[in-house]
Specification:
Belongs to the group II decarboxylase family. It contains 14 helices and eleven strands. It has helices at about 5-25, 55-65, 85-100, 110-125, 140-155, 160-165, 180-190, 210-220, 245-255, 290-295, 310-315, 350-385, 410-425, 455-470, and strands at about 135, 170-175, 195-200, 225-235, 260, 285-290, 305, 385-390, 395-400, 435, 440-445. The structure holds pyridoxal-5'-phosphate.
């Protein structure tokens, strides 16, 4: 492809993007294809001769789009959002054009230094104290693994990296029963073992009970084990429950245990200062993670990991073989030493575009709009006779179920709600996901898409009610 062709094809691609954004509500939100349907359309062998972009783009429309679940549709209420925004998309295009691999300062000083600045901006935006230092990771899963590995190395005086686990006490990690699966995965990968992850009981708001945590720690100490790390949740995945961060921080300090705060989704809420009372005590934590790639309008992937003891982090991960040694090593950050991967994408650019183009106030306005819409939906459910909430709504996730007047067993009720969700999702008009709370099949609706507005929420609520009542009739 020569530069002339690139320019004319790029113009067409951009016009394709604009029309996709404009028409996104016309697509079924959840892809309706059956397993294997898309693969069956792709030739089994690659083309030997060059193909023109026109033909490839036609196949994007015909072969790929039918198999896309439209995360950017304002009728996408499932999981947690993975928001794009227009400035973020433009930044990703520039990042791709530059094509830099940003493992070391020297491999693109601007990438490293913009990352430093963006992490300082983000830290200020969410109100974290200045003794936290940030680094971008690919996902919260990776950041949490980094936290547990760093805690492990610090606690073992960096011995486990050198010698393996020989002669070490059993290390124990604590979280609540509502923990995200990435923590289960991290303890496996870190060599701690799933059996040494204690899942502490939660209260009626699905938040960790601090006294139960302390009890578990004491029991482990009594048994000769070494409490290593507590992972608390600021916004669980099931219901955005908020663990009592301050009480957990106090316990962590008392027993000198690493305290990692998993705020993967809800951390973004802290950009609005009125939510910061919920995170009191975070100043005592050791590390904190949140995902601008979920709710902060920044394309996947972009995770902000903040840590106090950067030396421990770097001592855990740094490796400098001869071929990576540079003159500036003592005065710059080489972010390859701040995590697992060597090669790194230039992710700070999209943060820079998003934060500047929205402005902090623009982001706050969006977030507050989401909270208001969620509150509206919550009130509708509270006022309704045959729907009820299954968890508090501290932010913008509403957990509820349908229960018709007649008395039904839990099992029948759960089957009915599962059928309701599947019918709604198969309609293509909206997409939501579920969880289980207290044994109930729970519909989860997150009002957090970049472009969602009141009309979408109102229409979704109408459709949910209508569909539920036809199902049960
Ligand atoms: C989404 C989520 C994660 C995992 O995030 P990834 O970036 O996809 O790894 C971890 N913890 C919580 C609470 C989450 O909501």
């Amino acid at each position: 492809m020569d530069i002339k062709e690139f320019e004319s094809e790029a113009a067409k691609v951009i016009s394709w993007m604009s029309s996709y954004f404009e028409n996104i509500e016309n697509f079924p939100v959840k892809s309706p294809v059956k397993p294997g349907e898309i693969k069956a359309k792709i030739p089994t062998s690659p083309p030997q001769q060059p193909e023109k972009l026109d033909g490839i783009m036609k196949d994007v429309d015909n072969q790929i789009l039918p198999g896309i679940t439209h995360w950017q549709s304002p009728n996408f209420f499932a999981y947690f959002p993975g928001n794009k925004s227009k400035p973020s998309v433009l930044a990703e295009m520039i990042t791709a054009a530059i094509g830099a691999q940003c493992m070391s300062w020297i491999t693109s000083p601007a990438a490293t230094e913009l990352e430093e600045s963006m992490m300082e901006w983000l830290r200020e935006m969410i109100g974290l104290p200045e003794d936290f230092t940030g680094v971008i990771q690919d996902t919260a899963s990776t950041a949490t693994l980094c936290a547990i590995l760093t805690a492990r190395e610090k606690a073992s005086n960096f011995k486990i990296n050198e010698e393996g686990f020989y002669g070490q006490k059993k290390l124990i990690v604590y979280s609540s029963e509502q923990v995200h699966s990435s923590i289960d995965k991290a303890v496996r990968i870190a060599g701690i073992g799933s059996k040494n992850l204690r899942k502490i009981a939660v209260d009626d708001k699905f938040a960790m009970i601090p006294s139960a945590l302390e009890e578990a720690i004491l029991k482990d100490i009594e048994n000769g084990h070494q409490p290593l790390c507590i992972v608390s949740a600021f916004g669980t995945t099931s219901s955005t429950a908020i663990d009592p961060i301050e009480e957990i921080s106090n316990i962590a300090q008392k027993y000198q245990i690493w305290h990692h705060v998993d705020a993967a989704y809800a951390g973004t809420a802290l950009i609005c200062p009125e939510y910061r009372t919920l995170i009191k005590g975070v100043e005592m934590a050791d590390s904190f993670v949140f995902n601008p790639h979920k709710w902060m309008f920044t394309n996947f992937d972009c995770t902000a990991y903040f840590v106090k003891d950067t030396n421990a982090l770097i001592n855990t991960f740094s490796m400098t073989p001869e071929y990576l040694r540079t003159r500036e090593d003592t005065v710059v950050n080489n972010y390859r030493d701040w995590g697992i991967q060597l090669g790194r994408r230039f992710r700070a650019l999209k943060l820079w575009f998003v934060i500047r183009n929205f402005g902090v106030q623009g982001i706050q306005q969006k977030l507050r709009g989401h909270m208001e819409m969620a509150t509206w939906l919550k009130q509708q459910i509270e006022a309704s006779e045959d729907f009820s909430l299954l968890a508090p709504v501290p932010l913008n996730l509403v957990c509820f179920h349908y229960h018709p007047e007649k008395p039904l067993s839990k099992e029948t009720l759960n089957k009915l709600n599962e059928k309701l969700m599947q019918t709604l999702n198969d309609s293509g008009k909206l997409f939501m996901s579920h969880t289980k709370l207290n044994g109930y099949f729970t519909l989860r609706m997150v009002i957090g898409n970049t472009d969602v507005d009141e009309r979408h929420v109102r229409e979704a609520w109408d459709l949910i009610q209508k569909t539920a009542r036809t199902l049960s009739a």
